[in-house]
Amino acid sequence: MLTLLSSLVLLLAGQPPAPAPPAPFTATRFREHVAYLASDELAGREVASAGNAKAVDYLIHVLKECGAHGLAAGGDWVQPFPYATMVKALIESFRHRHVRALLLKRLT
């Protein structure tokens, strides 16, 4: 019994300390998050844009501060999302007058 107890104490002693709990949620802190995520610095956060990447980095940083861990493969925080390139290609194509006219004709 003493051996089991000694082993348990040694096992627990080797564990890293638990992260400090995050600061309590406040309306002020919430407004700060929203203000940054809606700021001109992020330029609308369009999919696959630099503003979107900044928003993702910000959210990951805040979640890590709260002690969260990434849930994607290998503990990563993000996962591939190939749809972005298709949407961007469609938007670029839609800007051309002939393609836009053809698409609008098919929709009506």
What does this structure look like?
With 108 residues, the protein is mainly α. The protein folds into two domains: 23-77, no CATH class; 79-108, no CATH class. 57% of the residues lie in helices and 0% in strands. The protein has five helices and no strands. The chain has helices at 2-13, 27-37, 50-65, 83-94, 97-107. The longest helix is centred in the middle third of the chain and has 16 residues, at 50-65. The radius of gyration is 24 Å and the shape is elongated. The chain starts with a helix and ends with a helix.
Q: Key terms for this structure?
A:
2 domains; 108 residues; mainly alpha; elongated; 5 helices
- Shape call: elongated
| Distance, first to last CA | 81 Å
Oligomeric state of the chains? single chain
**Count the helices. How many?**
5
Run of helices and strands: HHHHH
Mean pLDDT: 75
- Provide the helix percentage: 55-70%
Computed CA radius of gyration, to the nearest angstrom: 24 Å
Number of strands: 0
Task: Give start-end ranges of low-pLDDT stretches.
Answer: none
**Main sheet makeup:** none
Helices and strands in order:
Layout: H1 2-13, H2 27-37, H3 50-65, H4 83-94, H5 97-107
Brief description of this entry?
The chain is mainly alpha-helical. It contains five helices and no strands. The radius of gyration is 24 Å and the shape is elongated.
